[in-house]
TrEMBL record:
Coiled-coil ranges from the UniProt annotation: none
SMART domains assigned: HAMP (SM00304), HATPase_c (SM00387), HisKA (SM00388)
Domain Histidine kinase: 373-594
Residue ranges of domain HAMP in the record: 192-244
Cellular compartments annotated: Cell membrane
UniProt entry keywords in alphabetical sequence: ATP-binding, Cell membrane, Kinase, Membrane, Nucleotide-binding, Phosphoprotein, Transferase, Transmembrane, Transmembrane helix, Two-component regulatory system
Full protein name: histidine kinase
Any GO MF annotation of the entry: phosphorelay sensor kinase activity
Topological relation to the membrane, as annotated: Multi-pass membrane protein
């Protein structure tokens, strides 16, 4: 099926309309001109017939007179240039200006004759075999008083009328053709004028539909098309604004989802994963190929699927605690579920947000253990102090030897409890985020710090016949970015720890070294060492390798935990190597200054 353009349809419509109008007008004019000529010719024939009747009235009175009619009408016909025929009432031709009456047939049945016999006159148009032309006939009755005595008929050829008609027709056809040609040109121009704005609007609409929202329509027609163009421009502008707003919001949401610490997973009402943010893909190892698979296959937890179905069925939010195994380690998540609905429709899916609370749970468990251990560690010296105090009150004060022994024990336990409380306060202080933000980091020259610590603890080491030595290979230029007070605390704790667990005549060596990975500090002793089974736990709070041995040495079980905490707070890391009865080496790394 042919599809015409709007311009073509307008052009064809104009052509059809004008052609029909011109055809109707031409037909009417042709009919009018022909009718007018025919009526004029008829009137001319009737008038001449009447004149002829009056002139021939005397020739119709008797046979003698009738004999002269033929000559008379031939004479008269020559003057008026018409054919004249005289008939009696029976239709017999009495005379004819063109033919011999005796050779002519009876004319009674001719249309114009019968009309004249019954009325005022009769007319007819008929092809004449005699002349070979169309003829116009007009017949009038010849009366004597009221008596009908004959018929006079005048006739003329229609050739002039037909010639005029043909000329008029040719002129009209030429005029119609010229008008049609002019109409075509005018129609093309009008079609262009009226369709150009529509074509511009159509082209602009296609560009807008293809996404070019910067397109604007500039039409100044002053009519409905200009109003339509203005409306489309306004609609496009509003749509562009809305899309920009939506795009901006989508970008914000995408940035939030991409960079948020929580995993976000979208699931449909079948429990299939339909989307996941970057964090979710990292935690659960979700590849693109896994999108569209069931949550049991992706997450591997039936509780998740059960909760999704419950949220969809109840159309209500839910929060659960989900435990799952990821790459061999247990992770705990607090998962928030919300139904995805639209205008009161049933939930089409579920938004799930996974908050990793594994560390929080571990911290909570450590806090519980810490409180229990702290209570136990504080309870032991308090019990001893109370026991020996009661013994003294019960009479031991009277015995000098017992009094001195018990008071010394009470003093030792009080000192141990004081060290324990001091360590607890330091840990509590370092646990404070606000305090850690106030700690100022600065370049620290490590060699002078090692010398200071060695000098301050040399007396304590000397009491044990021990020697604290700075390794000759130590880097005198090593500088770390740290806090002096807390770094000194680390060194003091490590050296004191070495002094406690190194036998007499032992050595404690300190060393610092600059490397590509950072600044390394080493504390090595020739002490009793640490069993391999205890090495993974020595940095845990209140952990002791041998509680009886540690308590005898005055340890609180918090020194190494405090060391590790400070090192990590300063951006470093610590490790330990040890062999029983050969010694222990603590090595920690700090970021370099500059």
């Amino acid at each position: 099926m042919i599809k015409w353009s709007f311009r073509t349809r307008i052009l064809i419509s104009f052509l059809i309309l004008v052609t029909v109008a011109l055809a109707l007008l031409g037909s009417y004019l042709l009919w009018f001109f022909y009718r007018q000529n025919l009526e004029w010719q008829t009137a001319h024939l009737v008038t001449n017939a009447k004149i002829t009747e009056q002139l021939l009235e005397e020739y119709m009175n008797g046979p003698r007179e009738k004999a002269g009619i033929d000559e008379k009408i031939k004479e008269l016909s020559g003057k008026i240039d018409l054919r004249i025929t005289i008939l009696d009432i029976t239709g017999t031709v009495l005379a004819d200006s063109w033919e011999h009456p005796g050779t002519m047939e009876n004319h009674l049945e001719r249309t114009e004759i019968r009309a004249a016999l019954t009325g005022d006159y009769g007319t007819a148009i008929r092809y004449s075999a005699t002349t070979g032309q169309n003829m116009l006939y007009a017949a009038l009755p010849i009366k004597r008083g009221n008596e009908l005595i004959g018929i006079v008929r005048t006739a003329s050829t229609l050739a002039p009328v037909e010639a005029d008609f043909s000329q008029i027709r040719s002129t009209l056809l030429a005029a119609i053709f010229a008008a049609a040609l002019l109409t075509i040109l005018l129609s093309i121009r009008l079609a262009r004028k009226y369709t150009a704005p529509i074509e511009e609007i159509t082209a602009a609409a296609k560009q807008i539909a293809d996404g070019d929202l910067s397109r604007r329509i500039h039409i100044r027609t002053g009519d409905e098309l200009e109003l339509l163009a203005h409306t489309i421009n306004q609609l496009t502008s509003n749509l562009d604004d809305k899309i920009n707003e939506t795009s901006a919001e989508a970008k914000k949401l995408s940035l939030i989802l991409t960079h948020m610490d929580n995993a976000v997973i979208l699931l449909d009402h079948y429990g299939q994963v339909t989307g996941a943010n970057k964090k979710a893909r990292e935690i659960f190892n979700i590849a693109d190929a896994m999108i569209g698979r069931h949550s049991l296959e992706v997450i591997g937890n039936s509780l998740l699927n059960q909760t999704v179905q419950a949220v969809i069925a109840e159309n209500h939010t839910k929060t659960i605690e989900l435990k799952t195994n990821i790459q061999g380690s247990q992770r705990i998540f607090q998962v928030f579920f919300a139904p995805i609905t639209n205008s009161g429709q049933p939930a089409a899916g579920v938004l799930s947000v996974f908050h990793d609370i594994t560390a929080l749970q571990e911290l909570h468990e450590r806090q519980i253990d810490f409180v229990a251990n702290a209570s136990h560690e504080l309870g032991t010296p308090l019990t001893a102090i109370r026991g020996f105090a009661e013994t003294l009150l019960d009479g031991a004060l009277e015995t000098p030897e017992l009094r001195h022994k018990f008071v010394s024990i009470i003093h030792t336990e009080a000192e141990r409890m004081n060290r324990l409380l001091k360590a607890l306060l330091q840990l509590a202080k370092l646990d404070s985020q606000e305090y850690r933000r106030q700690i100022q980091l600065e370049p620290i020259a490590l060699q002078p710090l090692l010398q200071t610590v060695a000098q301050e603890l040399s007396v304590q080491a000397g009491l044990q016949q021990q020697e604290i030595i700075i390794d000759p290979a130590s880097d005198a230029e090593a500088v770390a970015l740290a806090n002096y007070d807390w770094l000194k605390q680390v060194m003091v704790n490590l050296v004191e720890n070495a002094v406690k667990y190194t036998p007499a005549n032992g050595k404690i060596m300190l060393k610092c070294q600059s490397t590509a990975a950072g600044v390394l500090v080493e504390v090595r002793d020739t002490g009793i060492g640490i069993p391999a089974k205890d090495l993974p736990f020595i940095f845990d709070r209140f952990y002791r390798v041998d509680r009886s041995r540690t308590r005898t040495a005055g340890g609180s079980g918090l020194g190494l935990a405090l060391v590790k905490f400070i090192i990590e707070m300063l951006g470093g890391a610590i490790q330990v190597e040890s062999q029983v009865n050969l010694g222990t080496t603590f090595t920690f790394r700090l970021p370099p200054a500059g």
